[in-house]
Amino acid sequence: MYAVPELTVPAADIARWGSPASLAMGLAAHPERWWRLLDYRTDTRWYRLLERTEQHEVWLLSWLPGQSTDLHDHGPASGAFAIAAGTLTERVVAAKPGRPPVEVTRALSTGRCRAFGPHYIHHVANTGTVPAVSVHVYSPGLTVMNRYRLDPSGVCHLAVEQAGVDW
């Protein structure tokens, strides 16, 4: 994992056994548990809910070259995502009132994992030439995702998407 801007640091216990990071990494390392479920879409990244409990949700995503998310967060959920195949590029944006946003961009290849806390704003993309697969774990499960844009005045909130309504 990489150093990230101060406002994006996850809770201290995020990598303990049973945490989002350990669940994502464990599942990403065992494609025999999910490869038959995997699919790809040409119009947008593909995703499938693998598991939902009271403590977490586990999602499997595939990314063709050029596919990406908008700049977003996962509301109050903490979580992690692990790269099961390929490489994804993540851009993290952190902002404090009255200060310019801080951006960090990192390429995450197979076997790498990114853990995050609530209201962690990021953009994820497959900027490579081969498909990528990732496993995402959210705790608690997703209820909302906030969409943002970055402009000269800072981070602008655009919309709230609701679980069960918008995805």
Overview of the molecule:
The longest helix is centred in the first third of the chain and has 9 residues. The radius of gyration is 15 Å and the shape is globular. The chain has one domain: Sandwich (Jelly Rolls), CATH 2.60.120. The strands form three sheets. It has a five-stranded antiparallel beta sheet with strand order 1-2-9-4-7, with helices on one face. The chain has a three-stranded antiparallel beta sheet with strand order 3-10-11, with no helix packed on it. The chain has a three-stranded antiparallel beta sheet with strand order 6-5-8, with no helix packed on it. By secondary structure, the chain is mostly beta strands. A hairpin with a 2-residue loop joins strand 10 and strand 11. The N terminus is likely disordered. 35% of the residues are buried. It is 5% helix and 45% strand.
